From TrEMBL, chain A:
Transmembrane segments: 12-37, 308-337, 357-381, 401-424, 445-466, 525-547
One matching Pfam family: BPD_transp_1
Membrane topology type: Multi-pass membrane protein
Name listed for the protein in its UniProt record: Phosphate transport system permease protein PstA
Source organism of this protein record: Ectothiorhodospira mobilis
Keyword presence, Transport: yes
Automatic annotation (TrEMBL), chain B:
Keyword flag Transmembrane: yes
Organism of this sequence: Ectothiorhodospira mobilis
Organism lineage string: Bacteria, Pseudomonadati, Pseudomonadota, Gammaproteobacteria, Chromatiales
Domain of life of the source: Bacteria
Cell location: Cell membrane
Name of the protein in its database record: Phosphate transport system permease protein
Annotated transmembrane regions: 40-64, 471-494, 506-526, 532-552, 572-597, 617-636, 657-682, 731-752
A UniProt-annotated Pfam family: BPD_transp_1
Biological process (GO), any one: transmembrane transport
Length: 560, 766
């Protein structure tokens, strides 16, 4: 075949088409790999390097930290950004080193040019500490102090004494947390209820529902309750103070990169490790621990550190409430459209419109949710049921319920479409059989058709959940915040607080990635959060696809 | 009908199964119960189904109902009429109302201030100002509405400055307003004209560093004075310091004078209908910059007022004309007078102009008793009707725009209800070029809010719409070739074993949360593209070439090797090629940059005059294109795959090559489906929010450059919606943009859905 003939046959086009899908697949796989690698990779204990960097002024600084990434760029770009690059270099490589110690140096991430670096060493004694404040710490252990007295000195002794003491400090810290989050939170919640009850009594009096004596009796009762609560509060404060005193006992003294000695109170330490001296299994253990902490911990340092538990919880709670709303309505609407409504042009138009709502920008639903649910319905609810709390709104402000309702509206078409599809697949022979045996239409529906279509409904629901879990734009308007002080479910009556604002995985990504002041420090966490979300959604979708495929096979067999 | 079937055995076999069957009555009851359940289900499901459909329809209705109030015109409703509470023979010179609309205030031309209840006209307090014996009031002026500051010019060249205040107290939880007058420059009149001549006109404005007062004396001198006050911390005594300058008079006789809040401009109105602008930035060297004729020969300027912020001057003529003027800085950095616009003429001479307190609107009264409500930015006349039968002397506007006081020459005051919620809206303000304050040329601009109260909101939806289209355009540019061509290959050429993996892989991306794509685009792709610009362009250029060359090379390979790979696996051959090429391009990127672009391509772009933003349309195009590919791919693939086999096989049997079959048979048959796919993809790109929010700089710009950012309608809603005041014009305009998005995507999606349904029918007929 000559080249001309080859071109004439159109083969180049086929190759171009093949290339298009190759590029698409590579992008998809590459994207998933990027997220998974960066997301999972963040928790792997990275080796700590130590090196000397020559400064432009001729001096030399010691750098200790983790390599984040390297890049090779034309030397001119660097020169234009004000760096002095040796004249003979045309292409320069530079490394981003995470040197931590934000409280020591003020700069936890620094670019260092390769040409100025000496040989990299990985000293076994180099120590990495995850702290509750100021980010990670890198250094070399020197001494351990208890109430100011030296109790261990020298690398190995300090290290051996350190771990149990960190555990002790962490244990106390957990107690502090549980008091703050649990008991004090409860007392605060009850105090607020008392305040509202007081106002309610006053309002009832003003509207003539109760007389002055009754009001005074109620107010006195409430005042007593308030006294009780504040006594309890004082008691808890006392306990907390004691715990704080205990946790402040131990201090680790370490040498940082520039040779200074630095004190790290054990109360601040979450965990410490010497990654360079660790074996693979030890690293694996630490990796698992950090991953677990990420999923179950609370965020710290403006969400850039710690865990994402409240975001996972918020996402799940929202999706759960949404499912409760969307499933019955979606299924009933689908049954109506398929089984009861008179088929005709009008129904066809309605059906197309409903289907198309799935393609309407989600932000439009958000706007609707904010205007209609939050301001209109929520405002009305507040006036009718929560007048005591006004002017601070209860339901008249974005919250879990409104977020769920908005997303339920957004995902209704998904459920309707899937259910209708499932109903349409039920062979008419099955229906006719049931009717021929004397069942009424509703009996046929509920006993025969709907059970057969259940997997289709499941598919719809799973797709709806996947869509809802990944949606962010409307949630920004109707109930998601960057940091919710309380979870929507807790131990205080009525246990489920639909009016509360929630955190959300998707919004967490947006917020931490784009609103946080220290983007470099936040990035690994954003990747990890993205990874969580991607895994969640891919798994949900694969499940849905799986169910659908099985369903198809099943009915293909039955209807033949 | 089912009942009859169920009922038949009962009649057929009398008594035979008495022991087993329940009694006839029991069965009848059961039947009724079942019939009831059946109809209950019918109505229950019907209600739920219709309810859901209605709920979804509610979205349209609700968005529309939030937008609709924008269109309501202004309206004025007379409520009360009473005698003006001024001493006999006096005329009102200024009328105003406090923010609860309970109290009105009137300043008379005799130097008396009366506070009265707006509902009844009952005088709450009457305060004669401390004007010395034997001295008369000759001029009056009020500063910016919000300052509540007034000045009287006296016949001995002195001025008296007073501020009306409204103290709020809550005795017994009831609001009580306690009006009063304060004297910020002291209770004694202050000398303005060193020569002590009577003041013909006077103007005052409080600024950041004190007061500026301008006046015209009876002998036609123009006096300008800057007054600063300082309070002694220990004694509490206030001392004033003033610098007085005499400005050169304009050629014609002066009638009125105005001074701006920034103390940098003085306007003088001439008797012949002229407007003179003095630059008093440096009062010692102040000079007459410009003179303009405002009204035709023979007419004169009868009323003037500043809009809020004192940047715009409204002039009203004896011919009923109303014009807006402001200063704009030209290219030479010199401020010049610009005639912004003329408003709808009144029938009679304009007698008074009252500006709004926080918007760029004003109320004009004329000699025939007509009231006009005009708005500057939107260029609208919202109301122009007679409200009285005598010439209007003064208008007082409530700061919340729900009531008006209109005083007429016959000594009456009308208290009127006002409805004027959205004067900022007009089609032209949203979709046309508007000449905003301080601009030389009309522009399209979106700038909805600012920290300052005097800011003129700019509500042009054009840059946002353009940004939306721009983002969608570049996304489609990226996604269409990949999606459509990939779909053709997957559906028609690809080996089924690979297709089973490829199709779900691409389709699952449709469920990918866009926040993740946006975050990657903003934090990973944008810096990557910026640092590897040559790589991006060389990949775009070389990739198709490499694919064709690979194909060519493949066709040259010996048959033995080629046979080993079955047909329909070209894609697998290409995967390593694509990856390799991508890697090579990225690795060589710095070298290419060095060789051809002087080491820095971004700088090179800047040098040749292209502005490069890190988060630009290129990045958005790629990221959003990626989001749209699955949509396009999935629908197009279905369309191509469902082309009946006998058509393509017929074509192949007649000797056409595979590609000729695609072009000649498959594409014509499947093209409506592919069109629908593109429409769906476009609909998705238009409404996408998170990607554009995160991967663009969110600046509303008016260009189509690949290297600049944009702000889209959807991102704009997401950014501004949580911060806007409920019910404001801004709020409703955001609803309008949401409605626009809804309608656009709904139309696009419906069209593509209908096309697909038609196509499905066509296939089944073939």
């Amino acid at each position: 075949m000559t080249i001309r003939k080859w071109f004439k046959s159109g083969a180049p086009w086929i190759w171009l088409n093949a290339g298009a899908i190759a590029v698409s697949v590579i992008m998809v796989v590459g994207l998933l790999t990027l997220i998974l690698v960066r997301g999972f990779g963040h928790f792997w204990p990275a080796p700590i390097l130590e090196t000397q960097v020559t400064t432009p002024e001729g001096g030399s600084v010691r750098v200790v930290g983790e390599l984040v990434r390297s890049e090779t760029i034309p030397a001119r770009v660097m020169r234009q950004s004000g760096m002095s690059v040796p004249a003979d270099l045309e292409v320069a490589t530079r490394h981003l080193i995470k040197q931590g110690n934000r409280d020591v140096t003020g700069r936890d991430f620094m670019w260092y040019p390769e040409w100025a670096m000496s040989q990299w060493r990985y000293p076994d004694a180099a120590m990495w500490i995850e702290r509750r404040e100021w980010g990670d710490f890198y250094g070399f252990p020197l001494r351990l102090l208890e109430d100011g007295r030296v109790i261990a000195e020298g690398k190995t002794q300090v290290w051996e004494a350190l771990q149990p003491r960190i555990e002790r400090a962490n244990h106390i810290h957990e107690q502090i947390e549980s008091i703050q989050r649990g008991e004090i939170g409860r007392v605060n919640y009850l105090m607020e209820r008392v305040r509202l009850d007081q106002r309610r009594a006053q309002m009832a009096f003003e509207q003539g529902e109760i007389d002055a004596a009754e009001r005074d009796r109620r107010l006195a009762e409430l005042e007593e309750r308030k006294q009780e609560l504040s006594a309890r509060y004082q008691e808890l404060r006392q306990q907390l103070q004691e715990l704080y005193d205990q946790v402040d006992r131990d201090v680790l003294v370490a040498r940082v990169a520039d040779g200074r000695e630095w004190q790290v109170p054990l109360a601040q330490i979450v965990r410490a490790a010497q990654p360079n001296a660790m074996g693979v299994f030890q690293k694996l253990g630490l990796y698992g621990e950090r991953l677990w902490n990420f999923f179950t911990g609370y965020p710290r340092e403006a969400n850039t550190e710690g865990g994402i538990f409240p975001a996972i919880f918020g996402t799940v709670a929202m999706v759960f409430v949404m499912s409760i709303i969307v499933t019955p309505f979606g299924v009933l609407a689908a049954i109506y459209l398929r089984e009861y409504a008179r088929q005709g042009t009008l129904l066809r138009m309605i059906r197309i419109s409903v289907y198309n709502l799935a393609g309407v920008p989600s932000i439009v639903f958000g706007v609707f949710g904010l205007g209609f649910f939050v301001y209109f319905v929520g405002g009305a609810i507040d006036e009718a049921f929560f007048p005591a709390a006004l002017p601070s709104p209860t339901f008249g402000t974005p919250g879990l319920l409104w977020a769920s309702l908005t997303l339920a509206l957004l995902t209704l078409p998904v459920v309707i479409v899937a259910t209708e599809e499932g109903l349409a697949r039920i062979p008419s022979t099955v229906r006719h059989g049931s009717l021929a045996l004397g069942a009424t239409k509703s009996e046929t529906l509920w006993r025969v058709v709907v059970p057969l279509a259940t997997p289709a409904m499941m598919t719809g629901l799973i797709l709806a959940i996947a869509r809802a879990a990944g949606e962010v734009a409307p949630l920004m308007l109707v109930g998601v915040v960057k940091l919710a002080p309380t979870l929507p479910v807790d131990g205080n009556f009525p246990y489920v607080h639909l009016e509360r604002k929630i955190m959300h995985l998707g919004f967490h990504i947006y917020d931490v990635g784009f609103q946080s002041p220290n983007v470099e420090a936040a990035q690994p966490l954003v990747y990890a959060t993205a990874m969580t979300l991607v895994v969640l959604i891919v798994v949900l979708n694969l499940t849905a696809i799986n169910i659908r495929n099985r369903l198809r096979e099943k009915y293909r067999g039955e209807s033949d | 009908m089912n009942e009859s079937v169920a009922a038949s055995p009962e009649r057929g076999v009398p008594g035979a199964q008495q022991g087993l069957l329940p009694s006839g009555r029991h069965r009848a009851r059961l039947r009724r119960w079942r019939a009831f359940k059946d109809s209950a289900a019918r109505y229950g499901i019907g209600t739920a189904g219709v309810g859901v459909v209605i709920a979804l329809g509610l979205i349209f209705v609700y968005l529309f109902s939030e937008v609709l109030p924008l269109l309501t015109p202004a309206d004025v409703k007379p409520l009360q009429r009473y005698e003006l509470p001024v001493e006999s023979g006096a005329q009102p010179v200024y009328l105003s109302m406090e923010r609860y609309e309970e109290l009105g205030v009137v300043f008379s031309d005799q130097g008396e201030v009366s506070f009265f209840e707006t509902g009844s006209g009952k005088v709450r307090e009457r305060i004669p100002l401390p004007i010395p014996e034997g001295v008369e009031v000759t001029a009056f002026s009020h500063a910016e509405t919000g300052q509540n500051l007034a000045v009287y010019g006296l016949s001995d060249g002195r001025i008296l400055v007073g501020r009306h205040t409204y103290g709020l107290t809550y005795p017994d939880d009831r609001r009580y307003i306690d009006p009063g007058i304060e004297y910020p420059l002291g209770k004694a009149p202050l000398e303005l004209d060193p020569q002590g001549r009577s003041l013909k006109a006077v103007a005052i404005q409080e600024g950041n560093n004190g007061f500026a007062v301008a006046a015209i004396t009876a002998d036609q001198r123009l006096v300008f004075s800057l007054i600063t006050t300082s309070t002694n911390l220990f004694t509490g005594e206030t001392t004033t310091e003033r610098d007085t300058y005499t400005l050169s008079a304009p050629p014609d006789r002066m009638r009125d004078v105005l001074v701006t809040e920034d103390h940098r401009a003085v306007y003088v109105i001439g008797d012949s209908g002229s407007l003179h602008y003095y630059d008093v930035t440096h009062p010692q060297q102040s000079l007459l910059r410009e003179s303009r004729q405002v009204v035709p020969e023979g007419e004169e300027i009868t009323a003037t007022a500043f809009l809020v912020g004192t940047r715009s001057l409204i002039t009203g003529g004896s011919d009923g004309s109303l014009d807006q003027w402001f200063l704009a800085r030209g290219e030479d950095n010199v401020r010049r007078l610009v005639h912004a616009r003329s408003f709808e003429d009144h029938e009679a001479a304009i007698t008074t102009i009252a500006p709004e307190k926080s918007r760029k609107g004003f109320y004009a009264g004329d000699a025939s008793g007509s009231l006009g409500i005009h708005y500057a930015t939107s260029d609208r006349t919202l109301f122009l009707e007679p409200v009285a039968d005598a010439p209007i002397k003064a208008i007082g506007v409530s700061p919340v725009y729900e009531a008006l006081l209109v005083a007429t020459e016959d000594g009456a005051v009308r208290f009127m209800g006002l409805r004027n919620p959205h004067p900022e809206y007009s089609l032209k303000a949203l979709w046309g070029q508007v000449l905003y304050e301080g601009y030389e040329e009309p522009v399209y601009k979106w700038q909805s809010s600012s920290a300052s109260n005097e800011f003129e909101p700019k509500f042009s939806l054009v840059p946002l719409t353009l940004g939306t289209l721009k983002a969608a355009f570049f996304a489609m540019l990226f996604a269409m070739p990949l999606g459509l061509m990939g779909a053709i290959y997957t559906a028609y050429f690809m080996h089924s074993s690979v297709r089973g993996f490829v199709k779900p892989t691409v389709e699952i991306m449709e469920a990918m949360p866009t926040v993740i794509l946006g975050f990657l685009a903003g934090l990973w792709l944008a810096p990557f593209v910026e640092n590897h610009l040559p790589a991006v362009f060389s990949i775009l250029l070389l990739m198709p070439l490499a694919m064709i060359l690979t194909g060519l090379g493949w066709s040259r390979l010996p048959d033995a090797i080629r046979r080993r790979v079955p047909a329909g696996l070209e894609m697998l051959v290409l995967v390593p090629v694509v990856i390799l090429l991508g890697w090579v391009c990225v690795a060589l990127s710095p070298v290419v940059e060095l060789l051809f672009f002087g080491g820095n391509m971004r700088q090179w772009f800047t040098d040749i005059g292209i502005n490069y933003d890190q988060r630009n349309a290129l990045v958005v195009g790629m990221a959003m294109g990626f989001a749209v590919i699955p949509t396009i791919f999935s629908i197009a693939e279905d369309a191509v795959f469902n082309v009946p086999r006998h058509l393509t096989q017929g074509s192949l049997a007649l000797g056409a090559t595979a590609w000729q079959t695609v072009v000649g048979v498959v594409l014509p048959t499947a093209s409506p489906g592919m069109f629908a796919a593109v429409m769906m993809g476009f609909g998705r790109a238009v409404g996408e929010t998170m990607i554009v929010l995160m991967a663009t700089g969110n600046t509303p710009v008016m260009d189509f450059s690949l290297f600049s950012g944009m702000r889209t309608l959807s991102a704009n809603v997401a950014v501004e919606m949580p911060e806007t005041a409920v019910g404001s014009t801004h709020y409703r305009i955001l609803f309008l943009s949401a409605l626009v998005l809804l309608v656009i995507t709904f139309i696009v999606n419906t069209a593509s859905e209908i096309i697909r349904q038609r196509l499905r029918q066509r296939y089944s007929n073939l």
